[in-house]
Amino acid sequence: MVDRDAVLDLVDQLRVAIPEEVRAAKRINSEGERIIEKADEEATRIVSRAQEQAAFLIGERGLLELAEEEGRRIIGEAQDAGDEVRAGADEYALQILATLEAEVTKALAGIQKGMAVLDDRRADLAEAEADEAEASDVDEDDDVDEPIDDEGEDEDAPHPAYR
Q1: Distance between CA atoms of 146 and 156, rounded to whole angstroms?
Q2: pTM of the model
Q3: How many angstroms separate the Cα of 119 from the Cα of each of 16, 109, 125?
Q4: Which end of the chain is flanked by fewer CB atoms within 10 Å, N or C?
Q5: Residue 61 falls within a domain, yes or no?
Q6: What is the pLDDT of residues 52-82, one digit of tens each?
Q7: Which residues 6+ apart lie within 8 Å of 104 measured at CB?
Q8: Neighbours of 83 (CB within 10 A)
Q9: How far is CA 143 from CA 8, 58, 136, 153, in A?
Q10: Residue 18 lies in a domain
């Protein structure tokens, strides 16, 4: 059987732990967003640099095709880097959320088990009370048919001296 105080203590611990896990998940989510934002800024910076390099190449050498190709390459690298950062942040957030889900599932199972134990205990108590009430009714029925004298003996029975 589970102690009621232990179950209540577990519920109190869950009330404290779950909000902390939720805050941790929010921190992780905002950290992922910050990483994505940083990757976007880096991609923008790289694109700007590519455009500057392209302008330089065009101006200095007149190599428009080379500049465009280099710009596409740099943009592609920036986009790939941004995609990798996003994928890593998403994977990390997914791992944290899966861990949080497992912890919450375990806590829920503990709560459900505690509730089941308390329900069983309540049912056993009700059954015991019903049995006790039934036994009490049977005892009262037996006493009605037979008169008892002051000493608790049956009046119709022979006196102990005459037995």
Answers
A1: 9
A2: 0.38
A3: 25, 15, 10
A4: C
A5: yes
A6: 887 776 666 656 777 788 899 999 999 999 8
A7: 18, 21
A8: 12
A9: 47, 118, 11, 11
A10: yes
Overall domain count for the chain: 1
Whole-angstrom distance, CA of residue 36 vs CA of residue 18: 27
Per-residue pLDDT of 79-131, as tens digits, reads 999 899 889 888 988 898 899 899 999 999 999 999 999 999 999 999 999 88
12-56 per-position pLDDT tens digit? 777 676 777 777 778 888 888 888 898 889 889 988 998 888 777
- Residue 126 placed within a domain: yes
Domain extent at residue 122: 4-140
Long-range contacts of 20-25 (CB under 8 A, 24+ apart): 21/100, 21/103, 21/104, 22/100, 24/96, 24/100, 25/93, 25/96, 25/97, 25/100
Q: Which residue has the tokens 């976007």?
A: 40
State how far Cα 111 lies from the chain centre.
Answer: 11
